[in-house]
Amino acid sequence: MKTSIALGTSLLLGGLWLSFHNSRQHHQWTPTSPSISEPKCPQVSATFPSRETEALNAMDEFLKSSKFFNQSVERLSAAVQIPTESFDDMGLVGEDPRWKIFFDFEAYLKATFPLVHSTLKVDKVNTHGLLYSWAGSDPSLKPTLLMAHQDVVPVPEATVKQWTHPPFSGFYDGKYVWGRGSSDCKNQLIAILEAVEELIAAKFEPKRGLILSFGFDEEISGPQGAAHLASYILEKHGKNSIAAIVDEGAGTFNVWGAKFAMPGVGEKGYTDIQIVVRMPGGHSSIPPAHNGIGVAAELVTLIEGHPYEPRLDDANPYLGLMHCGAEHAPEFPHKLKKLLNNRSSSHKQCGKDELALEAAKAGSDVKYLMTTSVAVDIIQGGVKVNALPERTVITVNHRVNVGSRTSDVEKKITKLASHVAHKYNLTLNAFEGEESPSSITLTSTKNKLEPAPVTPTEVGNGSPYEILSGTTRALYGEDMLVAPGIMTGNTDTKHYWPLTEHIFRYGPGFDPEQEGFGKIHTVDEAQSVKAHIATVRWFSLFIRNMDEANL
Ligand SMILES: *[C@@H]1O[C@H](CO)[C@@H](O)[C@H](O)[C@H]1NC(C)=O
Ligand SMILES: *[C@@H]1O[C@H](CO)[C@@H](O)[C@H](O)[C@H]1NC(C)=O
Ligand SMILES: *[C@@H]1O[C@H](CO)[C@@H](O)[C@H](O)[C@H]1NC(C)=O
């Protein structure tokens, strides 16, 4: 998951992950009778593949064996030991020598997964993008696409000593494999390849094609990896040519006294807005009452004084999650339930969104799943103590709420800036026109992104969401509930939108004993091997269930 300042995320679901985790408690789920006539969060029964062979049954057993466990430890550990760091200032592939390490990673995969490499077609896209295709016997079926990224967040030299085990050691302590990339997301990449390797060994022959697409610069937002891979696939297969995509993402959380797998079916949008205040310079011994820095500060104060209100669009996955909570979780708050049931009549586009306001009280990590965030992150102005600043620059980061657009953010900030411009007699160039003397100029940076199209989660029509849900409940049992998740950050899937509406950002591996969420992007990243094995088993089942699905 990416986290750079340029287009950064904290982690998926933001701190929700942590707060849910902290409220973890052991609870035996018992079905409660839904009080509403039509269930809004029906749960799919466990789905097992019906096409069985002796070899496939033996494979299922092998994946649970200690031999396979040990083999997985080796594979994941060795993958972590190859430091495939992607730095913010990375140059082009072929020019910047720091990309060369990805050849080592590719060679490692080739040596470790011989059946995958002899059975699937491998295309190298922009040198390090790895695209594996396994043709199905029925070419009329849309292929399943599984994603992961090869790169990892760099480990700053200054933090190396803080690691309990060195960041690229792949140290195994009997439960966890330690190191950068162990959980973000070499575990998922290795798990996918392990699942496919074992399926080939068990003579599985897919009817539906399977594509694996592994980018190499996700942590710096994917311009050379995912962007190229996605257009390559688009060119080869066309728009809407993929049945479903699963990429790294959200996992399983205990919330409201129940256990929920929460595949990310939506992502917030993103935009950085740059504000430039130009005012006359001069000697600071004879200053005007307000100079560029003062005026910029006034605008910052206004921006902070007018935050966005929580608002739950009908498409926001958090609304779906609340319906699941109301119907299945014993500790779902009574007040939320009342507001939820009354929502159709009380929710109005222009008024306050009472449900969102109430839900947001759970904390800022929950609030920002339904609120556009705004944060003034960078300010520059002035160069000398005796000279008035002529040019002051502010950058304001926004994560755009589902149901809103980057243009809404532009409108709002234009209104605030026009107030200040008017007060100080400055020209306002709002998203058009050039900087001029005595002006405020607003521009959006190139990396703006609208909120992702929300993946359909209706149940009852045999959708990919159902197959994903049924696979999850087949693996973990039916006290595991599945509910829609929303992410505050973005994954490589942002380049893949034209290929399918069925995109899931999901880490299916769950280890109930895992203490604390395996840290990502910081010191002591580690991956529970139990959760890793569960990931392999999940992918193995999911591939087979998708193969049989009538989509
Ligand atoms: C797996 O490794 C453990 C020690 O880490 C060992 O006790 C066990 O025998 C191994 N299992 C197999 C099948 O090799
Ligand atoms: C339900 O919505 C109606 C219409 O907005 C409102 O008058 C009523 O007070 C609401 N009931 C509850 C329990 O919130
Ligand atoms: C505002 O600025 C314009 C030129 O930019 C100037 O002609 C005008 O006199 C100014 N008005 C005030 C009230 O300062």
UniProtKB/TrEMBL annotation:
Residues holding Zn(2+) 1: 184, 219, 521
All residue ranges annotated as the Peptidase M20 dimerisation domain in the record: 265-424
UniProt keyword terms in alphabetical order: Carboxypeptidase, Hydrolase, Metal-binding, Protease, Signal, Zinc
Leader sequence residues: 1-19
GO CC field: fungal-type vacuole lumen
Keyword Metal-binding carried by entry: yes
Catalytic residues of the enzyme: 151, 218
Lineage top rank: taxon: Eukaryota
BP GO annotations: proteolysis involved in protein catabolic process
CDD domains (alphabetical): M20_yscS (cd05674)
Residues bound to Zn(2+) 2: 149, 184, 247
Alphabetized SUPFAM superfamilies for the sequence: Bacterial exopeptidase dimerisation domain (SSF55031), Zn-dependent exopeptidases (SSF53187)
GO terms assigned for molecular function: metal ion binding; metallocarboxypeptidase activity
Coiled-coil regions, chain positions: none
Similarity field: Belongs to the peptidase M20A family.
Protein name: Vacuolar carboxypeptidase-like protein Cps1
Organism: Delitschia confertaspora ATCC 74209
Biological classification of the source: Eukaryota, Fungi, Dikarya, Ascomycota, Pezizomycotina
